[in-house]
Amino acid sequence: MVTCYLRYVLDPYQIKAFEHYATLWIPLVEKFGGQHHGYFLPSEGANNIALAMFSFPSLSAYEQYRQDSMNDPDCMAAFKYAEDTKCILSYERSFFRPVFGKQA
């Protein structure tokens, strides 16, 4: 399993727009076989940083999702929404191997 960690730098005046963007992506990741662990929006501290995490069974499954999302109308609409609202200034993506507790 591989978990994708995304760190976003947001326009602090567009947090509501980013929150809408986040609600669009959660079911889309799951539609393509991923497990979304949620988005985490600014609360205390920095007012322009958000995080997201989601997992796929393997890096190749993640790569297939990325490829398939480029041809999916709902994914393309979500990409366009972020572009139109300019709620995301930049982002970085990292990958981790999760540990969820003792395995049977």
From TrEMBL:
InterPro entries noted in UniProt: Dimeric_a/b-barrel (IPR011008), NIPSNAP (IPR012577)
Alphabetical list of Pfam families matching this protein: NIPSNAP (PF07978)
Superkingdom: Bacteria
Domain NIPSNAP: 7-99
SUPFAM superfamilies assigned to the protein according to its UniProt record, in alphabetical order: Dimeric alpha+beta barrel
Protein name: NIPSNAP family containing protein
